RNA sequence: GCGAGAGUGGCGGAACUGGCAGACGCGCUGGACUUAGGAUCCAGUGGGUGAAAGCCCUUGGGGGUUCGACUCCCCCCUCUCGCACCA
């Protein structure tokens, strides 16, 4: 590699120091300026940053600095998602206290991030394991408790045997723990829940309103919430009416999205764990069969669940139920394909219109009734499409949609059921049987039961001295000083809750804390939050599509309903960046394809690392890391450096074309250079070059502004630099030296300005070298000069029958007829037209002519 | 199975509302400067054919719409991601 690289080490250290010493990126609320809240997902302090961090923070900094140059008041903070399992595991393995481990890691990572030269307002740094932070979420917990939004229940939960804790549904991916990839098992356990289901509809509705979010993420969230509209009604158990009347004594409540198919119900199914099963069994023998079936299902469920084409297993009960629609008595089963966790845990089975029921019916020899007329060419099994109702009593002849409504109306009229909406979304289980998390601020008193801690006693501080074994059970339970307390209500003896909160609770509101990070009077200062919120641009990995991003949306709505914030949604726009890949695989130690950002920055500098991260791929796509590509980035920056340093004398002698020392105007604290006056009497080379300069400004601005296409923005800057080199050569004897110097100056400054958000150090340095006293980031983003971009002539492609045969250079506004005539007369076109009849000529102004011929 | 997205040179990737396919970078080839260069600069670089001008082919495959298709429509293939018995 290069031996004469620009001195990036000194430059980067120098500017990082200057930005910090002058607190250049410190911001305060300023109602007179437009604000821009730019936020990247804060990191877990694992100890070292990785290339994924480099990428996301490079993207964020580009946007922040760009907006800064556009005159926005930019909030760009950084902090630490500091609670979590790895700290605890480190403690168990190496005997370091999680707090020490965490804070050391934070120091390391902060130092690493500083070397990237990102425009953070470090005065706003937030660390979630600090009691002054989690105090406020304890307070909110109590508020939620008061409103029934936090509650405790015993339930079957996801248990990670490796992490020794409960996981929320969102934290199980394909039956495995999201963090450690262990297979998740089931457990019945008491725990705390946040009632996210109360917001299911609102979360869903906003999915369509958050237009700044990627479609993909919104679809994932919609699917996760999983709203389905249908009906719920009772199937009376035959011979079990309460008092010999029609009113059902014992009945099975079922949920269906297809009430229109009720006449096709030929059996019904309960989940094996359904609580009613016990009261339905008639004798000891059946009880035994049921117990055996349940045991079998429980045993195999975990592995079987993942098996493809799993056979549906079921057991017929002696009890039968009555289909209220047609009074038919039908068999009742328990079967593994019905889940207790969804709907009512029981279904009406309509094999004619449901493939699962069809499979089961075939296996158990149950009748199949079609209730929707099949299309003429139908050859499938269960038919799930729309159509006209048949075999359905009073619904016959209706469309499926009408029949659904009528069936529900009928159920309501008969007082048998109602319309019902079900969600796949479950309440968020937030209890963790771990130490390194925020304590849940409640106590258990023998006399008063569960009692929230008094607000004035908050925060409930996580005790320092705790034995961590990793062997299971909440570690806090063994901390007698912590557990034993007094009841906030009666003053009697009480025990503290020993579970801690899911760390996703901290990340559900950190963006609010950044608005007023040291505020001691509450979670955040109202005025500050009202000024800064919502986040204008959020940037982070797709892996949080339904985790953090859903929780944060929910939590924000809770805070809104508690009267604390005004916004409905925390993040106006989301950019979800792709992974960093190398050699076709995600970087990992086991694959040996890890690139260490420290090494990278040491060898090439932060500017190069950032440049390549942004250049190699558009942000939403995976980035294929390539060491040679990085060298290309370094080469480009060297090229910029060499040009400026090598032409310093010439560049310094001249101010910009059009005006000497353009006056500065102030836009929101940023001094703007007004557009250049149009040039008069300059050489053709000079005009062409200046057009390239201003076209580049437009391209780069559009690429950033329109769709985050930073890779093409960088390509455009590279083209401009190439053009600078070319012009430098070409202009030597053809352009007057004053004009040449002025244009080179304008081009150079433009390059530095456009490159500034991407590579802030080298550009600051060269900007200063050119004689500027003030930081580049106190100068405005350049504005493309429309006059410079006008052209007199354009190249028009001439096609004959769709194939390019020639090119014409013509006046921009040449009349269509002239263009057509010139094209037909062209030497290279002639041979292709002669002997053939010209059928028509298509002229696309300023672009192309297509001559269509016929033999 | 359902849902979403993607298939373009040796590689990463460009191509706005249909209008010169392959920008920019990597790699490679040649040249210049050099004691030397793995530095730098210049030139070339989709495939085929040709001495050259040129011609033909080319955006996963096959149809279609159109003067014109990477772009729009239909069918198929492959890959990635998400959900996965959600009634």
Uncertain residue segments: 657-663, 674-678
- The number of domains is 5
CATH class placement of the largest domain? Alpha Beta
CATH topology of the largest domain: Rossmann fold
Anisotropy-based shape: globular
Q: In percent, how much strand structure appears in the residues?
A: 15-25%
What is the number of helices?
A: 26
Describe this structure in words.
The protein has 855 residues and is of the alpha+beta class. The protein has 5 domains: 29-127 and 511-615, HUPs (Rossmann fold, 3-Layer(aba) Sandwich); 136-195 and 427-501, Rossmann fold (3-Layer(aba) Sandwich); 228-422, Valyl/Leucyl/Isoleucyl-tRNA synthetase, editing domain (Isoleucyl-tRNA Synthetase, domain 2); 626-789, Isoleucyl-tRNA Synthetase, Domain 1, CATH 1.10.730.10; 793-854, Ubiquitin-like (UB roll) (Roll), CATH 3.10.20.590. 37% of the residues lie in helices and 19% in strands. It contains 26 helices and 34 strands. The strands form 11 sheets. A 4-stranded parallel beta sheet has the order 2-1-24-25, with helices on one face. Strands 6-5-9-17 form a 4-stranded antiparallel beta sheet. A 4-stranded mixed beta sheet has the order 13-14-12-15. α16 (597-604) crosses α17 and α22 runs antiparallel to α23 (760-769). The two termini are 60 Å apart. The structure holds one RNA strand of 87 nucleotides.
